[in-house]
Amino acid sequence: MSNLVFVYDPQFQKHLTPESHPESPNRLAAIESALHRSELIKQVRRAEPRAATGDELAAVHNPAYIEDLERKGNLARDQNARLEVESETFMSSESYDTAKLAAGAGIVAVESVLQARSQSAFVAVRPPGHHALKDKAMGFCLFNNVAIGARYAQKHLGVKKVLIIDWDVHHGNGTQAIFYDDPSVCFVSFHQYPFWPPNVGWYTEDGADEGKGYNINIPLPAGTGDEGYVKAWDAIVTPIILEYNPDLIMLSAGYDAHQFDPLGQQQISTAGYYLLSSRLADVAERTNARLAGFLEGGYNTKTLAESVVATMHVLNAADAQGRKDVKPFGSIYGGEVVEQTMDRNPQLVDERISTIRKHLSKYWKSLRNSSS
């Protein structure tokens, strides 16, 4: 049995954006090329996606929104144009069908891991999804792929508790809004703050009603590097995951917090993504949870591809020792070694982590002592 299933289809490159747009088909072409160079493609099991059905989309999105998006997709096809459906969010002639395939790819991924064919999955799709709201496209996203996969796992595969981790540089506002009052989905978002989207993602946004305490924002200042992200993971994320004990862990895997990404100002290195991926795999193993990663942002195609391959190498490792043996850069890609990065303002980062942990401690017993 392969430890990792890779869900991908060339169709995802047919969602076309304007020539200068950062969310371009070149992103997936770079990932596919890096996978072949690393020979990882020979080690993982590949799975073909299928389009999500109307009912599967409607488990997350309003039916009127789905119909409107289909209408706009048809208009783009009829006009052979690239229509801006929301600010900087475009649809081309094949975007609607491609977006349905991207949502269905996540469903294939959760089926693969929950039906014991693989321990982990990675879904390389376009368009991304974590900004998509129930009734609105946003931030390059049309359907919320990770939310659709989570609801499918709960409705059809017997999953009770899902934990979603989002390490994209931008706050996962769409995912937060969809699950804000739902304790069956615990949402954790690392993101640069303040940043885009504006006025969302502060740590006091911690859920509503029965979901109070299950929405966990980790807003980090610009310039937070590997050191700060790892500290936040160890101080906040690991204790919460162990206490929540999910059946399924889902990752919104954005790589635009990379130090060389053109959109963000965070300083994560490729090695940093390896460290985060290793911690993610370790905690999934400790909770006996299955794991599915969904590609979100990342707009320097070289560092995006290298970071995705680092994550996939970690997820494909058989055990903790195998993960330690993974080389996160250099020999895998034939590139230069990238040193781990320090924080631009370590005191501010430490204070932010401490403040977030203290705030969340009223909901999570595991955060109430200094030793966890």
Task: Provide tags for this entry.
372 residues; alpha/beta; Arginase, Chain A; two-stranded antiparallel ribbon; 11 helices
Structure description:
With 372 residues, the chain is of the alpha/beta class. It has a single domain (4-367), classed as Histone deacetylase domain (Arginase, Chain A, 3-Layer(aba) Sandwich). Helices cover 40% and strands 13% of the residues. It is built from eleven helices and ten strands. The strands form two sheets. It has an eight-stranded parallel β-sheet with strand order 2-1-5-10-9-6-7-8, sandwiched between helices. It has a two-stranded antiparallel sheet with strand order 3-4. β3 (83-86) and β4 (89-91) form a beta hairpin. α1 (26-38) crosses α9 (301-316), α7 packs parallel to α11 and α8 (270-287) runs parallel beside α9 (301-316). The two termini are 34 Å apart. Residues 329-337 have low confidence and may be disordered.
